[in-house]
Structure formats: structure tokens, C-alpha cells
Design goal:
It comes from Streptomyces californicus. This is Secreted protein. By secondary structure, the protein is mainly α. The chain has one domain. A two-stranded antiparallel sheet has the order 1-2. The radius of gyration is 16 Å and the shape is elongated.
Length: about 80
Amino acid sequence: MEAMERRRVAAERVRTAEDAVERLRAGFAGVGVKLPSLRLDPVSCAGDEPTPLIDLGRCNIDTALRLCEVLAEKESGHDG
């Protein structure tokens, strides 16, 4: 793969990861959860062939408990 193509593929990977972050942010917001540290990990996007990682970050106990509630509702089929 030539350099120009590698750069195009790398940029597409980063764009896809950025889109995933926005989708996660919107999805979490839709169930009343905000992860303040949710972001694209900048280190994983460095270099010629980045492998973007999404950093879900840290959250407080209330947010963690809300995530537990949402997951339990989903698991039990009562996610209305």
C-alpha cells in the first residue's frame, strides 16, 4: 500500500472512531448517562498507521450505578 493510501485509510479509521464516540455520547445521554471523560484516545491515533481506541474514561459512583441500572433493564427486557 503506498503512502497516500495509508494516510487515507488512517484518516478514515480516525473518522470512524470519532463517529463512534459521538454515537456513544448520544446513546448514553438517551438513557440518562453522561461519561465526562468519553473521548478518542489521542495516543492511539498517533503514527503512520493509527489504531484508534475509544477511552470511556472515569465516572463517579452515581454514573456507575446508573450504568448498572440501564444494563439490568436491558438484560431483563424492560428497557422501555
